[in-house]
From TrEMBL:
Membrane spanning stretches: 64-84, 104-125, 132-150, 156-171, 178-198
Keyword annotations of the record: Membrane, Transmembrane, Transmembrane helix
Entry annotated with the keyword Transmembrane helix: yes
Annotated protein name in UniProt: Uncharacterized protein
Protein's organism: Nocardioides cavernaquae
Amino acid sequence: MYGRALASTALAYAVVHHLGLLPSGLGSTVDGTRVADWLDLAIPWLVLIPAALTLQAAQVGRRVWWIFGAGALAYANGHGMHLAANSVGNIDPGPTAHLWDEVVGHYIWYAGVAGLLAALAMSMVGRPRPPVIGYLLTVAVGLTWASNAVGGGTEWFSLAASLVAVWWGWTQRRQLGVVLLVGFAPAAVMLVGTLAGIG
């Protein structure tokens, strides 16, 4: 159960955080909003439910649940700010919509994701290394984290979080936590390249 829930969390995160790639947001709906805006409402649910099931299967302690709870609140709150301001900005762009979407919303959202990652990383301690699919999923998560950071303007923050994940993965390299090393090392390289103006 734990492995399936963790894989579902990784897959959900890597897939749903690329809704922005949908052509023209799949068109317009009510009051000029895009179909993608409405689909975006489901993103926190699609990520948080399998993440919570992962922690439940791992039978983590209270401290991990508190970290998860704080991360979940920040993630959902920041994502909601981003969604609302982005939706408004698509119709009536301006500095206020930009502030709440691209700055405040993204930083709170990504801080929440970092909290979720920390809680999930704590649930990995003492577990064996994954099969090959686990490594592939974690690379997808890391590259999603990096591409979202570039799109969201949080490269420095996201690089710092990536380096912490790489460090944690190194300390856990003989266990399941090695996936953080495997997934976030490419993310860190991508972010360094972006910050250096390469690519």
